Amino acid sequence: MRRTASFAAAAALAAAIVALPAAASASTTGATIYPPTNSCTTTPSAFVAGSTVEFACADGTFGPDEAITITVRGENGAGVSFARASFAVTTGTTVRESTASGALEPVALTFPADAVGVYNVEAISATSAGGTASASVTTEAGLPATGGDARTALGLWVGGGSLVAAGATIALAAAVRRARDARV
Questions:
Q1: Strands 46-48, 131-138: parallel, antiparallel or unpaired by DSSP?
Q2: What is the separation of C-alpha 149 from the centre of its chain, rounded to a whole number of angstroms?
Q3: How many angstroms separate the CA atoms of 20 and 30, rounded?
Q4: Contact, 74 vs 120, CB < 8 A?
Q5: Which of 99, 142, 139, 93 has its CA nearest to residue 115?
Q6: pLDDT per residue over 15-74, tens digit each?
Q7: 8 backbone φψ class: left, alpha, beta (φ>0; ψ -120 to 50)
Q8: CB 121 within 8 A of CB 135
Q9: What is the H or E stretch that residue 11 is in?
Q10: 60: which residues sit within 8 A by CB, 6+ positions away?
């Protein structure tokens, strides 16, 4: 009797595990769209700080005429303007609408003058996994702008100076101790 109860419990648990993925993927609005890789782009993909980049997604990336959330992540991503709307948070976000063919028309992203590094742009909707693209900041000479500026150098100087001062203090304390021990 006890073995039968254990077997029934194990069978019920196995049935629940098998049914769980199907229940988790069920949606009241229909199937999720999984667009192909690279369905979204940034043009150009390398830009000078303060420039404008266009972000767009191909047909079929989203469902027709649905709200799409566009998010920009990167250093001072909040400083990015989405065609005249700017935000005061570390990640800039805006909402646009897809076309009847499920595309995202180009959205102008104007980056701040102090932009550095790589910015990741993503677009998602209620029915689509959406897509991502990235854009890298370059200098006027075309080299990557990685953020090595005076603020970073100041931190290195202060940190290095603190280490030198700490080392000098330890050396002085050791010399005083040796002198005191030599007198005894």
A1: parallel
A2: 22
A3: 18
A4: yes
A5: 139
A6: 555 444 444 444 444 567 777 778 899 999 898 888 899 999 999 899 999 999 988 887
A7: alpha
A8: yes
A9: helix 2-25
A10: 33, 35, 39, 101, 102, 103
